[in-house]
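Title: Prediction job returns without error message
Component: structure pipeline
Severity: low
Priority: P3
Assignee: unassigned

Description:
Job completed but the reporter wants confirmation the result is attached to the right record. Sequence as submitted:
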Amino acid sequence: MRPKALTVAVARIFYFFAAMQFMAYYVTTPKWYLTIGDYLAGRERLPFQERILTAVVANFLLSCAPLVRAFQRLSGVFMPVERGAYFLISLLAFCVASIFCVKLHRAVAPQSRMNFLVYPAFIYITMWSYLILVQQHFFYPYDMASLAFFTMGVYFVYTRQFVPVCLVMLVGTANRETTLFLVGIFVLDAATNELATETSSLRERFRLSQIPWPKVLALVSIWLAVKLPLHYRFQHNFSEDLNRVHENLPFFGPKHWPALMDICGYILPLVVLMRRRLKPQRFANYLLILPVWLVIMFFKGILIETRIYGELSSFTAVAAVILIEEYVTRPATEKAVNIAA
């Protein structure tokens, strides 16, 4: 085996070990917000029960007697057996998300020499998003799957593979409804004026005439075709699907600022500040989904529970690596001018 191939193989082994440690800590340390027996039986509160995909997968795993016996022999993170099932689900989902995060970086920056930084950046940002929390330190069984579907969706949108985007919408919406934000990213991607630069005005950066509205309608229809039957199926479950505005208003006090700014490990706010250096412009334009995300979460989420931005971890990791490389390769004279300024 050549030295380079050996290095890559060893790095992948260590990355997988890191993923295993991360997921083992993730399923054992935070408090499980849902009552897992109720969730698997379809009796949990709304909107959580509508996020049904991982319950279906977990029930399938737990119906496999040899797998359950293996969990019992292994013990540790695999016991109780429900936690063992979600360890496997979360580990697989995180690995898929990691692979597509790296693929997204290669698609966005094919000439990059910093591919080796993408996974470390991704695991750092993901740990901050889902683990390094003081308030609202909870485990949700569908979060890693949601991260995987969203990362795949962004990759397929950027590479303009419409059928895979539809499949992500179809399956991913059964896991969590945040797939709807992929429609917004799809619109931003399609409307981007490829000739625009970072200095172009907002109006110059987009051409609404380029948007394939039938495809947009198809994506929204897929989302509704999944979401509405799930809502109907579980309509009699007790609901926590509330307007959270009054709960969120007190969080704007100074003592909550550290938690409020913890969006993707404090990295996404920095990406926003340096957005003019983020290239290509088509990828940078995806940042415009963030204001929509923040407004919706202000009404439907708990703002200091920063896992509500977790799906953006892959975008943030790729953007951060691109910005680091842009700085490293910038001429020394330009750096000196910026420092002096």
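Comment from assignee: result matches the submitted record. Residues 17-328 form one domain.
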